[in-house]
Amino acid sequence: MKKGLLSILVVCVVALLAIPACAPAKPSPAKPSVEPIKVGMNFSLTGSKAKFGEMNMNSATLAFSDFGIDRINDRPVKITEEDNRSEPATAKSAEEKLATANKVDLIIGGYSSSCTEPMTSAAEDLGIPHIIVTGSKDAITGKPLEWVFSGPRVPASHYGDAMWEFIDEVIIPGGVKKVALLYEMTDWGTSSAKSLRPKLEERGLEIVYDSKYNSEATDFKPMLSKVKAADPDMVIPVSYLTDAGLLVRQATGLELDILAWIGQAGGYTMPEFAELAGKDANLIFSTTNWNPKAAWEGTLNGIKWSGKKYSDEYVEKYDTEPDYHGAQGYAAGQIAVDALLRAAEAGNTINRESIRDALDNTDLTTVMGVIKHHKWTDEMGHHYYHQGLPPTYVIQWQDMAQEVVWPEDAASVDYIFPAPLLEQ
Amino acid sequence: MALFGQTFITGVLMGGIYAIIAIGMTLVMGVMKIINLAHGALMMVGMYICLVLFEHAGLHPYVALIPTMIALFIIGYLLQKYSIGRVSGVETIIPESQVLLTLALGLAITEVIRVIFTSNYQIIHPALTGEYWHLAGMTIEIPYLIGFVIATIFVALLHFFLARTDLGQSVIATSQDKDAAVYMGINAERITNFTFGLGTALAAAGGVILMPLFYLYPHVWHPYLMKAFVITILGGMGSTVGALSGGLILGLAESFGSTYWGPQWGEVIGFIIFLLILLFLPGGLKRIIGR
Fold it and tell me: Given CB atoms, is B114 within the 8 Å cutoff of chain A?
């Protein structure tokens, strides 16, 4: 009985669905088809790097809404998000999905280097312009790729540009001779360590401990015990967020007696670092690529912006302070908006080719400073293509707040040195 | 010498905490003969309950331990009764569908927690956090020491429970031969539900012990699930002493590996031991030390 009823129901449904197909086609009024301009976002929204990816993406979308470009040339601007789950393989498939299934015209994305590398190589293969946000491994823009643009990313070898001046003028004269170098073991950490080593050695600093580590470990005391036994004057770690907080807490607990701890951005500039490390965060130095106190400001699409305005807006909207990862997301959004507007102004159809050409000529002041996509070679012999170079700073945590301490002309307070872990 | 001592202490303390997380998995594996891949996610749920109790009721994690364990016991019991138990013995398109179900549960639980609490890192600073004892050039983090003591007490209590109580004997009987246990009048289904609840409560205890030491975020459980699995194989399914020994061996291997071979080798050494046990001692340490 039940079967019979089910068969009747199925026949009815099929018949109902078939009726419109049998009806003569009505001529529908000609509607101009307005294809939206599609912008894809490929970020780590879940997984171990979600905190960074969220900040990247929140800021990039904030830029699109701030500069009011919901339509260009009568075409609506549509943003499509993809979560790469902080996994390289997913990052690549997310890029491919955006390019082929969603058919976006431009992709913004890339927090960790290990995800950025596969996503940019997919972008190059598929011929879609990609603006990198953070992924900093030197080699990512070390090849002459046609469709990949650095955006606001800082190459790993240049994270410490401001720090070297600080080391030369403050740290070495202050008595530091021996250094411990610790770095997380993904592309970013190893790439950073590779560039740090020769620069430390050429300054006559002896590297007494040099090791990579797994940033997802929960107990760093075995490694830190070895660091302590090596008796360094300074520790230079390359860390993400949880490892940054744990390293500082556990090093303080082990009474590591040093004159300075200088983090290489990453976790050390995140607002959560102070929460995670507690009072032990105080006096920690870090390089950074941005600070809301940096005086970058300008006008885009007729709308005035500044680093401070962006920071305030982010706090208001997301109830947490952004760090340089957020500023990079916002700057990537600014670069994308600028490229789309210039492509439209040039009278071109906005498509992948015209966006690529506009990005090729990017020379824009953003919240991260001036970004110019060009080809250049640094003093270490690294070649970069479509790569800008935002300025860097040294911050120090003082009274649980980040203060810019170097360069001197950008400093918000005086630095405190020596800065031991023990006397806080 | 101080370096050796520090490495040893760190390894032992870490191992104790690994053991309490793993012991729940080993119990479930012993009785149900499946790997519970939701074990880590349930540990993480316990950590979030502890967070809420700390932030809203002001309960120190060591006090919140008991209500959190009770809550997770109930969650585990109900999950087993109404979810995992339902697919036991049911014909499905692929074998071991219970294992896949636990994986799906783990992922679903993680996403639900992420929606409720966001991906943000959460940290609490209860009393004793960041407190250390310094002794002859060595350092002992007090919350680690307390965690180790709590873990050891739980292992001892569980050992006593399994060896000396009727309910414990029923758990052992069910793990040894479910059909025979049923013939002897044991309600194997209820025992399985109870064991799953108990295993989940012990996972939660491990998570709570971590609260003064570590951060909390929805994916916090990933490395611990793998360690729990290694310890379960290392110690032998259903063995309490095996789990404690496995935890200590893994903790010490990681600690000595990190110190003397480099931090990147710590976990590699743990997995090498895992491989060696699978190859040469498939029954785990249980074969050597008994229950």
Answer: yes
